[in-house]
Amino acid sequence: MLALTVLETCVKNCGHRFHVLVATQEFVEGVLVRCILPKYNPPTVLHDRILSLIQSWADAFRSSPSLSGVVYVYDDLRRRGLEFPMTDLDALSPIHTPNRSIPESETLETTPVAASTHQPQPQAPASSPSPNTSPPVQPSDGPVQLSPEQEQKLRRELALVKGNLTVMSQMLNEVTPGQSKAEDTELLQQLFSVCKSMQIRVVELIPQLQDERFMEELLIINDDLNNAFIRYERFDRLSKSQSPNTQQ
């Protein structure tokens, strides 16, 4: 399952050259579909995860002739009567993550918008953390092993990411497009911006870590961030389309 999580994240964050390799009929049939053949008696969770990946890639790459291999396999499986898992739009992460660049000295501590709350109240940004004199992971040519001090620092920073993500998700559960208060909309915009900045470092850290526990946690956080961004962008789009009726 970890290998599938890594593969999914690479597809979301890498470019066309990687997509060409993953979307070939040989890879999809020879590796992914082969893993879920009945003779291997695969667990249901593995079976559904692989089918979900094939389905999402086929949907995303259907308009790209150079990536048609996965589309062919998906359509062929459907013709054979194979049932694919239901697609949850709120849980669906985008395939393409925009390229970004920031100074290497930055860490995850991007002025977080404060901690958890049960109601979407306007919140002032938390006090800025002290300057980072020792980033959790220094740029390197390959994976590195974190020292105990670096592990503690990274744990604190991941807690900040999760805290902001929790507040953002709670607010999105409670606000209604076109009917939200101006201060709630402003706080959501702040959270969206902060979480976007934090995601940059999350993605940069993944290939630098040797510890699989941290790597898996970062991959999960990246997926959770993408899911929250989809929800926010849908909320923002609907709010703008209903702007004449927005209640302040």
Overview of this structure, please?
The protein has 248 residues and is mainly alpha-helical. It has 2 domains: 2-91, Serine Threonine Protein Phosphatase 5, Tetratricopeptide repeat (Alpha Horseshoe), CATH 1.25.40; 100-248, Methane Monooxygenase Hydroxylase, Chain G, domain 1 (Up-down Bundle), CATH 1.20.58. Helix content is 57%, strand content 0%. The chain starts with a helix and ends in a 7-residue tail after the last helix. Residues 114-131 have a biased composition (Low complexity). Residues 149-237 form the GAT domain. Residues 96-110 have a biased composition (Polar residues). Residues 93-152 are annotated as: Disordered.
Please outline the helices and strands:
Blueprint: H1 2-13, H2 16-22, H3 25-35, H4 44-61, H5 68-79, H6 148-174, H7 182-205, H8 212-241
Helix pairs in contact: 1-8, 3-4, 3-5, 4-5, 6-7, 6-8, 7-8
